[in-house]
Amino acid sequence: MAQLRRDYEKFKERDTEVIAVGPDSKNDFEKFWDHKNMPFIGLADPEHHIARLYDQEVNLFKFGRVPLQILIDKEGIVRYVHYSKSMADIPDNGEILERISEINA
Q: How many C-alpha atoms does 90 have within 13 Å on its Cβ side?
């Protein structure tokens, strides 16, 4: 999430809203969000309802959820999905921003 925070203005310049969904309780998630002063939307999903909607892997041996990046256009169409294999397999912001520019073109 720190990666998204770092380039949040670049996402906004591309008319893109960032939403992070996490496995913590609503209370814990709000505390984290406030403590880190995150500029984008954070949504608690402790029961994994949203994770299941998008087939995000929940694996306790990998410390919870395996990262998932999704780009959904303004019509609600999923335009890009990256299911990471680990925390080291998260696309960098440059790749995501490039995909957004392609979608907006």
A: 13
**Domain tally for the chain?**
1
Domain around 41: 2-104
Instruction: Give kind and range of the element (H or E) at residue 34.
Output: helix 26-36
CATH at residue 52? 3.40.30.10
pLDDT in tens, the chain (105 residues): 788 999 999 999 999 999 988 888 999 989 998 999 999 998 999 898 988 888 887 766 555 667 789 999 889 999 999 888 777 888 999 999 999 999 998
pTM of whole model > 0.85?
no
